[in-house]
Amino acid sequence: MALTHGQDELTIHPLGGLGEIGLNCMAFKAQGSTVLVDCGLMFPEDYLFGVDVVIPRFEHILAEKDKLKAVVLTHGHEDHIGALPWLLPHIDVPVYGSDFTLALVNAKLKERGIPADLRPVKPGDRVEIGPFAFNFIPVCHSIIKGYALGIETPMGRVLHTGDFKIDRNPMDGHMTDMDAIRRFAEPGVKLLLSDSTNVERDGFALTEREIMASLREIFDKARGRIIVTLFSSHIQRLQEIFDLAAACGRKVAISGKSLARNIDLARELGYLRIPAGTLLEVEETSSLPDEQVVLVVTGSQGEPLAALSRMSLDEHRQMRIKKGDLVLLSSRFIPGNVLAITKVINRLYKLGAEVLYEKVQAIHASGHAHREELRIMLEAVRPKYFVPIHGEYRHLVKHSRLAVECGVMPERAMVLEDGQPLTILSQGIRLEDAVPAERILVDGKGVGDVGQSVLKERQLLAGEGMVVVLLVIDKETGEITLGPDIVSKGFVFEQQYAHLLEDAKCVVMEEVENAPKGNIKKLKERVRMALRRFFRTVLDRDPVVVPLIIAI
Ligand SMILES: [Zn+2]
Ligand SMILES: [Zn+2]
Asked: The domain 208-357 belongs to what CATH superfamily?
């Protein structure tokens, strides 16, 4: 579908992030030019067997790629930059973002050998792109150097908040610049697009200062080693940990590739200052007394290959948990990972460690605005139209209701979903035809080839296992010359069920005998059906049956 753009139209087209937390990506179109804001991925839920990542569907953008003028990034989290490696090879446009955001993008692209035109912008910069001008406004979030975007368009001003919270008492300048937002909103804002993640949480998010105070108390009391895990891009929290360690006479060692990389990037740009002599190699800490050691490790989500998980299994090459260790999970439990994280926590206790996490102590603060902060944003911007972004469907609905409470006319607080473009006219709005927005699954080098039918097969294999029947028959006589052999995976414990598999062979032989000769395809189908029937009857199980029948 080609949308026509008059002089007096602005179309926003969400490709992802409206209906899920992840995949954030939105196209802005006016006067024949398109700018993409964010290009994020999502990590698959458990039921997407073997799928590595999920990315938005770019077809529509690529079909009109001569119109695309730039990609503008709000911040460096994966749900905002992670899909770039699947978009940039197909297009040649500049990518704008803060220096830290682009450093993360650059590291990601370099790994894959993808070239890109990365253009860092500073807070307060105004960049003209086609009929748009983007103003970059600093926001406070769980990653440093994020921006809200004040977008001047032919149809008036649009504010895209990116991911944000309002820290009322910010440290080290990590603040949401509400003054800049108010200044941008002064001439009137046509449309506000705002982060909906925490609309269900009342009040205000904890501030980083409160987290710091809580961590300080813990550091002061701890007598053994302190082992901290957190999101590896949370540079501000890392700074706090380095500062506290130095203040308590502790040394810090880092374990985990993503942590080491992000720390290097942040230090290079001057965003992380490590007190002299505080950072050691992991090996160097073994000669220090326990009360002088802090280990910062990856694995806050229970990832099986990350340092913390391997330590909890006592399988880490360099680090072993011991009695007296205090482990701090200074991060959110992402809902899909709760089980994995809880297992790690239980294993850490088994090894004699004490574990603190968000639920038992204030050692993590969300990076997303709670309800009262969302209200402040709405009241500061006072938009004519409101579209909630960055949320599951219920978050979007609740955020649109909050907008109405804050003075937006009910018919102008719109809940859009991925693939539903909205056009703003000089008078009123128009909902465009929806554009397919099913997400694309990436498994290894295959992009989009794993569809519903492959997933269904993987689900069956995982649920009931597989039985392979191998059989060679004589082309002339139809007699069995080899087999049948039966091999199963994930179906039954073969030794225990040897008799059952023998019976299954008889079922196969019977089918071969009774089947009309010469039609292998039909025979395969008969064998498959007969075995499924047999397993259903005797075991009440329905494995995937694969007959390999060869006629020679
Ligand atoms: Zn974020
Ligand atoms: Zn996000």
From this structure: Metallo-hydrolase/oxidoreductase (3.40.50.10710)
